[in-house]
Structures are given as C-alpha cells and as structure tokens.
Automatic annotation (TrEMBL):
EC number: 3.4.14.-
GO biological process terms, semicolon-separated: proteolysis
Cited Gene3D superfamilies: alpha/beta hydrolase, TolB, C-terminal domain
GN (gene name): dpp5_1
Cited Pfam families: Peptidase_S9 (PF00326)
Listed InterPro entries: 6-blade_b-propeller_TolB-like (IPR011042), AB_hydrolase_fold (IPR029058), Peptidase_S9_cat (IPR001375), Quino_amine_DH_bsu (IPR011044)
Keywords (A to Z) from UniProt: Hydrolase
GO molecular function: serine-type endopeptidase activity
Superkingdom, taxonomy of origin: Bacteria
Record-given protein name: Dipeptidyl-peptidase 5
Highest classification ranks of the organism: Bacteria, Thermotogati, Deinococcota, Deinococci, Thermales
Length: 617
C-alpha cells in the first residue's frame, strides 16, 4: 500500500432521484493521460441492476425533472446548464451566460428554471487590475472574486432574464410548490455579508421581494413543506463558531417552531471524497423531514415529524454523504472507517467503486480518555503489523468544529501501512457531542490541548507504542495545534508535520478569506479590540521554544490559511536552527489533501512518509 494508490480511486457524489425510481449520481475517477498531468473525470451515472454511465463528458449537480436530466458542465471557463433528454441523444446546452451558472433549480411543474448567476459579467484578465469595495476579495479554490454579485435569473421558454439583483451574493434559492415564486437566502447588507448573517426572502416572478425572517446568523437548507410552510437550518452564533444549527419550521402565518437541534450536515473528516450530496432538510414521500446530523463520530440520517419527533434511519457506525428517495426507496451514499462512499439501498450495499482497490484496510480500534472534568474524549488507534513498540503519530483534525470517526482517512491508513501507529481523537471543539462540547469560545490551546495530551497518555498506556518516538501532525486547525503543542511542549514530540497551519492570528485576520469573521467568532478579539488575545493565542509568540524537527506543508493558493503562515513558521524554525523542511505546492489551495491534483496529493503523502521515516523510525 503506497500513495500511488490514489490514481486508482473512484468517488461517488451528488446522489439524487432519477427516472423510473432509479438513483442518479456522479462517478468521479482519475485519468492519467500521456504527457499530461493526471486529472479528475466526473460523469453522470445511474444504477439499473448495474452501473450505467449516462455521459462520457463532464457532468455535475444532476437533477431529473419530467422528460430530461439537467446537469452543469464547464464550457471553456464557465459552467453552463445542459439538458439530457430521456428519449436519447446528446446533451443540449441551454445557457450561454458569459459568467456561467453557479446553481440552478427547476420549478416543480418543470416549466421554469431559476439560475444563480452573475449574468454576462466578465472578469478582468489576469494581468489587469481589479478594484474592490467589498470583502472578501478572494476565496479558497476560487481565487480573486468577481466584483459582480450573484443574481437570480429566470429561464423560461428560451432566453434567460434577470429576475433579481442584490448588493451582495444571493446564496440559495428554492421554488415554492406552486411554481409561482421563490424563497431565497441572502445577506441584507455588505456588513451582514462580512459577518455571515443571512435573511430569508420571498421573490415573485415579477421581481418583487418581501423579507420573511433572519438577520441574526446563518440560514441554509430552505425546504418548502406540504403544509405551505418552510423548513430551514439556522442559529444566531450564541456560542461563536461552535454554535450548533437548529431545524426550524415557519408556517404560512409566520409562526416559527423549533423542531430539532444538533451538528447538522456531515462534518466527519475524510480524504476520500470528490463532491458531496444532499444533506440539508428534504421532505420525504411520507411528508416528514430528513436531514444528516453528525453524532458521536458518525453522520446519520435523521427523520423529523411535523410534531418534532426525531429518530435515526441509519446506523451509528457509518456516515452519510448524501441521500435521496427514489420513488419510495431510500438510497444513501454511505461511508465507514474503511470504505469511501458506497451506494446503499435500504441498508444493502449496491455499488462500491473501490471494492477491488481498497482491500485489507485496518479497522480502527476505539479508545476513550476520561478527562478530570468528567467528559469523555473519544478516539481511535490504527496499529501496524508486528509486536512493537511502534512509533506513534498523534493526528489532529481541522475545523476545529469537525470530527473524526466513521469515514475513511486514507492517509492515516497509509501511515499505518508504513509501520506507524496512528492515534486520532475528538477533543473539545469537535462536533457531534453536544453544544457544550463543541463550543471552544476563545479556549483554543487550552481545553483542546488538555484533551489531546490526556488522550495521548491514554494511548501510550493502552497500546504497544514507544513513548520516545511520538510524532504530531494535522491540517488547518490541526496545523495550528501542531505548532502550538510543539511550542508549548518542546520535549514531548520527536517529529512534527504542520499542514496549512495558522501561527499568527494578526496576519490571518487580514489575509484569510474568512479572517475577520472567523477570528472574532473563535477568539472574541480583533487587532484593535483585545489584541493581546491574538498574540497570546498565536504559536508565533512561543516559537522560540520549539525544538521538534518539523516539516511545513503549505499550498501557494491557500486563501483560507494563507501561505504566509507556513512561510513564517518555516523561516523562524530555520533561523533558530530547528531541523525543518518546507514542502511548498504551486497552484493548489486549502483542499490539497482532499481535492488537489492527484500527482500533487501523491507527492504530499510521500513527503510525509519520508519525514516520518527519517525522524520517527
């Protein structure tokens, strides 16, 4: 088992209902053409007693309606909407907007399509200046942002027309059941956009807008209900960035009821995904609501009645990447600790695209640490072959408001196959263990550090691992904690890999695509308000204590944790004489480990393994 395994992987995503009660989904594999870099290929597929590909060309975001299947495909540099007739023939391109289509919704009666687009806006050429009066000016995986906000256009009978412009991006639209109007989500002002605050609106087909509710926090997952109401997810940042979402129902008369609360959506870490699927609330054939909720290391499908009675439909040992009702049958994309997404019907696995590729993976062994405060810190250990004692890697997830659990982390399996034990846990700040557990609220580097180090000691006691050969690694928030732990405990770790990390909150505040909002929500501080907190929480303030040999991994186009964070950490360690190496990746962003170009993902994993072999073996 080696990193080149990546080239043989396949991925399932975008599960949705298809014609004749069959599922539609996207199958992504990796092409390796001669004299060209490897690339991902995403095609539209269905399952009809076996896999059947419906396109050979690119397809994304499929939707079946009436006598056609719709999907998005890139034409030159912009995504356009295509229609594939069920009667056969080639897909037909039905939009030619210069800015492309970023999202679409077909009306229930099939007569109209709402488009999220920037119309005929054309971005400046790469060598031309850009002028901004809003924020952010860039975004990870997208680069420099367009100055034209995202609008709602209507496609009806041929040519699309602009239905609604807005001062900032419109985030989401959904049709009402009568096909005579749209619900939409958008910030009410630029300031609300900066702070990730949204409002819900009603939009009629003449372009008239009426505000419904909102203005206190994020809103997402709009879903009209059979009684004429609207279901949605929202909260008001009561616990900062770690606030759990709530599922609400708004009746026609404006009455709002809370139906459920939890870590909605699949926030379980995995490097075995290309794309996602429906996870937000949807009305099922029985009239109940369904949504994916992360709980205790798994992402489960929750059923919610109109009265707010909740029950899970899927098992605790799996994670749901997407779901769809095809006729009356429930289909899911289901992940486990040793499987990427598989197509499952009512609990029966129909299709595993990696059944012959991913064989012999080790089942993680659960282990839990009981903290002095009484809470459990759940985690897992992957043990290599042989008696040991083995070198151990403590691997820390990103977020911090995500989780490890019942979804495959292939890179950890690769570390194990190379002879390293791997321990990974869900410290406080992780999702799926209740609101109190998820809310760090400015305690970065405090309660999470205590949980991680306590968990590490528990692993050292319970497994045949070498306490003198312990490494630490992680990406994003996990990179921050790697920097923090090696600075705070300079003699604890033999080696470290800090990946797309944060070391300096001041520069992160100004340079990250989420900097001001994220920093305030997580630390309650800005460079002018409680600036001492930003310095105290910056690993940079303690860098003089670091002695751990450290590999710094960072992508040049990372706009989430900009590359100056890695550059700064590397330069200071090098100047201090700490053994260090900089693995710097061009043209990639924050998602290198999960969605970067395949050969660059392979090179990254090789760099990790070389570092561990040099400093931990």
């Amino acid at each position: 088992m080696n990193p080149e395994l990546i080239y043989r992987l396949q991925f399932l995503s975008s599960l949705t209902e298809g014609p004749n009660g069959q599922p539609l989904f996207i199958l992504t594999d990796i092409e390796t053409p001669q004299n060209e870099p490897p690339r991902y290929r995403s095609r539209l597929a269905t399952w009809d007693q076996g896999l059947r590909l419906l396109t050979q060309g690119e397809a994304k975001n499929p939707l079946w309606k009436g006598q056609a299947i719709y999907f998005l495909r890139k034409v030159e540099k912009a995504q356009q909407l295509f229609r594939l007739p069920l009667t056969g023939g080639e897909p037909e391109q039905i939009t030619q907007l210069k800015a492309g289509v970023e999202g679409y919704k077909v009306s229930p009666d099939g007569s109209k399509i709402a488009l999220l687009t920037r119309g005929d806006y054309q971005a400046p050429k790469p060598d031309e200046p850009r002028v901004y009066e809003d924020w952010p000016v860039k975004f990870d995986a997208r680069g420099a942002l367009p100055t034209q906000p995202r609008e709602v256009w209507l496609l009806e009978g041929g040519q699309p027309r602009k239905l609604l412009g807005w001062p900032v991006d419109i985030e989401e639209v959904v049709w009402n059941s009568a096909s005579d109007g749209l619900y939409l989500v958008a910030p009410g002002s630029k300031q609300e956009h900066w702070n990730d605050i949204q409002r819900a609106y009603w939009l009629d087909l003449e372009g008239r807008v009426a505000e419904l509710f909102g203005g206190v926090g994020p809103i997402s997952g709009l879903e009209p209900t059979p009684d004429g109401g609207l279901a949605y997810l929202a909260h008001a940042y009561e616990h900062g960035g770690g606030t759990e979402a709530r599922l609400y129902h708004r009746a026609l008369n404006g009455e709002i009821r809370l139906l459920a609360q939890g870590s909605f959506l699949n926030t379980v870490n995995s490097d075995m995904r290309m794309g996602s699927g429906v996870q937000t609330p949807r009305v099922g054939p029985d009239g109940n609501l369904y949504a994916v909720v992360t709980e205790a290391g798994g992402a489960r499908l929750l059923e919610v009645t109109p009265q707010g009675e909740c029950s899970y439909l899927t098992e605790a040992h799996e994670s749901i990447l997407g779901y769809a009702f095809c006729g009356d049958e429930l289909y899911t994309l289901s992940e486990t600790s040793v499987h990427g997404a598989r197509l499952v019907k009512n609990g029966e696995v129909l299709f595993d695209p990696n059944a012959e590729t991913l064989t012999g993976l080790a089942q993680p062994q659960p282990v839990s640490y009981t903290a002095p405060e009484g809470h459990q810190v759940p985690g897992w250990v992957l043990m290599p072959e042989g008696e040991g004692p083995h070198p151990l890697i403590l691997y820390i997830h990103g977020g911090p408001h995500t989780a490890f659990g019942h979804a495959l982390m292939l890179q950890l399996q690769l570390f194990r196959a190379a002879g390293f034990a791997v321990a990974y846990a869900n410290p406080r700040g992780s999702t799926g263990y209740g609101q109190e557990f998820a809310a760090l609220e400015a305690r970065w580097g405090e309660v999470d550090e205590a949980d991680l180090l306590g968990f590490l000691e528990r692993v050292l006691e319970a497994f045949p691992v070498d306490p003198n050969r312990v490494g630490v690694a992680g990406g994003s928030y996990g990179g921050y904690m790697t920097n923090w732990l090696t600075a705070r405990h300079p003699d604890r770790f033999r080696a470290a890999v800090t990946d797309r990390s944060i070391c300096n909150w001041f520069s992160f505040f100004g340079a990250s695509d989420i900097g001001p909002r994220f920093t305030w929500l997580e630390l309650g501080a800005t460079p002018w308000e409680r600036p001492e907190v930003l310095w105290q929480k910056s690993p940079l303030s303690l860098v003089h204590q670091v002695r751990t040999p450290t590999l710094v991994v960072h992508s040049e186009q990372d706009h989430r944790c900009p590359i100056d964070q890695g550059e700064t950490w590397y330069t200071l360690l090098l100047q201090k004489g700490v053994p260090t190496r900089f693995f710097r990746v061009p043209e990639e962003g924050h998602e290198l480990s999960r969605g970067g170009r395949p050969d660059r993902r392979v090179a990254r994993l090789k760099a990790y393994l070389e570092w561990w072999n040099t400093h931990l073996k």
